[in-house]
User: Fold this.
Amino acid sequence: MAGEHDAPTAAAVVDRDGIVSGWSEGGRLLLGWTAQDTVGRPVTDLLVDPPPSGFPEGHAAGLGPTGWVPLRHRDGSTVDAVVTAHPLLGPDGRKLGQVVTIQRWGGRPVIADRAFEQSPFALGVYDPELRFLWINASSGRVIAHTEEQVLGKKYREVLPEFDRSLFPERDDKPYTDKLAEVARTGEPARLITVFRPRGSDYANAWATSIWPVRDAEGRVRAVANWGFDMSAEYWARQRLLLLNKASGGIGRTLDVIGTAQELAMTPVPGFVDLVSVDLFDEVLRGEEPPSASAFNPGGTIRLTRAARHSAKEVADRAAGPTKPVAHVPGSVAARCMATGRSTVELAAEPGQGGEWAFGPGLAADPAHWPPGNPVIDASIAADGLTGRITVPLRARGALLGVVAFSRLDRPEAFTADDLILAEELTAKAAVAIDNARRYSRERATALTLQRSLLPQGLPVQEAVEVASRYLPGGTGTEVGGDWFDVIPLSGARVALVVGDVVGHGLHASASMGRLRTAVRTLADVDLPPDELLTHLDDLVLHLASDLQPTGHFQPTGESGATCLYTVYDPVSRRFTLASAGHPLPLIISPDGTRTPVPAHPGPPLGIGGLPFEATELELPEGSLLALYTDGLVESRERDVDQRTTELRQLLHHSATSLEALCDTVMDAMLPDRRTDDAALLLVRTHALDPHHVADWDVEPDTAQVSRVRKFAVDQVDAWGLEEAAFVTELVVSELVTNAIRYGEPPIRMRLIRDTSLICEVSDASSTAPHLRRARAFDEGGRGLLLVAQLTQGWGTRHTTDGKTIWCAQTLTRPAPR
Assistant:
């Protein structure tokens, strides 16, 4: 029987001759004809057009077995109808006629109404003011209301929770506003709506569509929507997004604490509300984590809270990271570290009737849980937790610590998929933390090596005033091979050196140490800057060759380096320099003007076969020199020339001392996140008082020795250094005698009063004297040995015009400035 909302259906009985013998009430409702009007008349009278000639008998006299037929309404209008004919048989099987059913063509069949009503999708229709016109049963279950309860009511009255954004951090519009927007604009919309149905402890994700319903004139008369539950797919996608976020967000700093904090912050608040990361102290120090036998799983395990993050950020930050924590025997964390298996704790068993409630669309089969999970522990509710996942932090077979993922005051219970997500996050972080630990260990080793190779204190001398700074690259980079040095030379001169080895890490630090040692050795020989760099270039070539395991020669590579070697003479104020691919020094005169350096850097060390050129300048007393490595001026934002200009401007800063000026330069030039080492050596030049230098031309005659000796003793007495007169007389006599006997004129002697008393004898011969062992009856051979015994140092310095033999005596009273 048709319901009150069904479209009328007519039923008629037609005999074998096509005469109507029965007519239903539905026929009157559909066509307007009563039973009295139709019974006894041919059924073809109902047709708008007569049946075609030759229409076969037995097909309802023209109505056919089924199909579309135009019928006449009693008022004269035409009704398009779908006609279905069924044979009517007698007891003997003979055909007595047909039973014909007639339905309006284009009218919605009852089954269609039932299809919409029984649809698993939530369907609803609302007027432009968002008053309910119709909902199906699925929609009623979602909103926890029947159709009778909501008809005529406004959407906002029934569902006020949809009148605010469920994700305000994403600037999403409330769902109600979206419905109103479609009604206003007439533009359909599609979106994913996440909400918690009434009576449920889980947030559902629904794919929804909203579209306008228009009348024949195209005016929007209503708004319809449909939606289906896609929670399983949505939350799986959210887990993938969280893992993707973790892949890009965890392990960026190469710092153990920083990586632990990244792990703690990534899943909050989308997955959990609180994360804590506890690590062994050895991991924090960059050392190897303890082995399984190193700690007693049955005893208290002492770790350090490396990171903690929750939705209550202010409260948690007050506690601060890196505080000691202890996991007592039998605790969940202790068991997890001992067994290597994760544990899920729930404050109470969710669901009704003892059934697990895993959330809409998620597997409700407890077999999805690994053995031993989940554990019902009502005690965690005392800490305000509704659930906690504890995962051991392991990488490369080593236990690093433990991680706890907790939910606070939210009804959703953890699922088996949540456990998988927590373990995936922990596994990614464990590798990153172990990488950071290994990097920290290598970087600490390289820093220790490099700092042990760099000068711990600059030597005190009168030629220059110096200050230096060295800063390694940021924590995200390896230690480089930058170095600097200040080397006292003969004749009160000083060598100023700065260099940079290509590459980073232990190899660069070790190479830097070898090059610094080589520079000091070559400086002791008193080679000119260009010759020194040539010898240093040969050394780098040999180092590169030694690094080739097959013996093939490769001059370039990680052993390449740059170096700037300079010499300053406070007597002549001459400054000599040569560069092997290194930035030239900046020179600021005492009046603040820039002193140009008419030189060009030569090739880097390790190229081979190319010459180095030396450049000599005369500097005013009080000139400021800045020697630096490229890490000080290189920048991704500005080019080197611009950065060099900035450095030059900073050197005009009115600092009270070179130390303060060093700090000013380093603070201004180096960004917080630098990628390379940086070294800076600031030098203020001094000139030696002319009264502290005395020299004589010596005639190549041994008779002149006594005269020169007297001149030397008189000068020493004039300087008030009577205690040095005896030794001075002996060494002058020996050095001048050797120059006259074995050297070539011109011969010249010079005395310099500095921090030491220096005696120099120069001649035009290039032959160098050397100590030799004198036999018992030899008349000579003891002179240089005597000089070496009486002075604190001696040596030979070759020049373009010959050589200079020098010796130095330590003075108890330095020369006045």
